[in-house]
Amino acid sequence: MAHQLIRPLRQWPRLQYHCIFTPTLHHSLSSPSLFSTKAISHLLSFTKPPSLHSNRHFRSYGLRLPNDPAPSHLQETAGEQDSDAKRSRNERKREARRAVRWGMELAAFSTPQIKRILRMASLEREVFDALMLVKRLGPDVREGKRRQFNYIGRLLRGVQPELMDALIQASKDGDQSRLQALSGLDTRVVEEDGEEDEANEEDYEEEDEESNTYIDIATRWSDGLINKDIDVTNEVYSVQSVEFDRQELRKLVRKVHSIQGHQAIIKEEEDVALLGAKKSLFQFLYTLAKQLPTE
Q: Would you say 146 and 139 are in contact if contact means Cβ atoms under 8 Å apart?
């Protein structure tokens, strides 16, 4: 009798036999009260495999074939992300071009005008120094001016666009009332500010002349060190009147030479890296020049 009952069970898959049926059957056979045809039939009903047609509409995305198209909602999400990324890139390019244009327009103003605009736009001294440097570059230094304007553009990217456009336009037109409205000050303060600018213009010019002297020295030193000019190199390292870190200077010079000689870098990345290295070297030499004793 037991042999006839157990024989059909061998026809079931091995996995179901071990995982589902075996423990239950063993318990049933060991209990005389449950050892009956009806009980065994009842147990077999629990081992029935799931119908191949049940849940036929269910499909796991994790089991898609390689060539299967992605679900529509995933395709839409990917398309939106691509569109947002493209729009973001285009927006950044427009902002970069606009900031470079601001730098070119600012460089065309006089020193007092530049200082006023930068003060009203809450910009740092670094922007003013960069503008003063590019104003000194001659028309023959086209590549140097292009890189310097790109650098100025990066400094200006955080400015409020409407404010900067309005300040530049009002300065071009000489519109004091517009400048007053932009500054948020009353007329008396704006007029006093304008009078102060005129009164201090000579002071600005004297300050700029002194600053230009340091810029000239730093530029000559920087160019000489980059071009490995022996005379300039000896001149810089033989400075005794000022204490400076000669090891740091050597490191900055080596960094410029390393970037110049690295041909595997993409051109645009090389320009940015080289500009940054030259700027660090120039800033070091400019600080050194300012500490030189006046004759």
A: no
Helix (H) or strand (E) holding 89: helix 72-107
In this structure, the number of other CB atoms found within 10 A of the CB of residue 228 comes to 10
Count CA within 13 A, CB hemisphere, residue 45.
6
Using DSSP's 3-state secondary structure scheme, residue 139 falls into coil
Distance CA 119, CA 123 (A): 6
Cα(193)–Cα(189) distance, integer angstroms = 6
Query: What does each C-alpha distance from 294 to 6, 127, 207, 219, 261 come to in angstroms?
Result: 111, 26, 14, 18, 38
CA distance 228 to 222: 10
End-to-end, the C-alpha distance of the chain in Å comes to 122
| Cβ atoms of residues 231 and 224 within 8 Å | yes
Q: Which of 259, 253, 248, 244 is nearest to 289 (CA)?
A: 244
Q: Report the candidate in 159, 268, 285 with the shortest Cα–Cα distance to residue 233.
A: 285
Confirm if 166 and 179 have CB atoms less than 8 A apart. no
pLDDT tens-digit map of 203-260? 545 555 566 778 888 889 999 999 999 999 999 999 988 888 999 999 999 998 888 8
> Can you tell me the distance from the alpha carbon of 124 to that of 108, in angstroms, rounded to the nearest whole number?
19
Mean pLDDT along residues 180-203: 52
Quickly list DSSP for 53-72: TTTTT---GGG--TTSPPPH
- CA–CA gap between residue 131 and residue 111 (Å, rounded): 9
**Has this prediction a pTM greater than 0.70?**
no
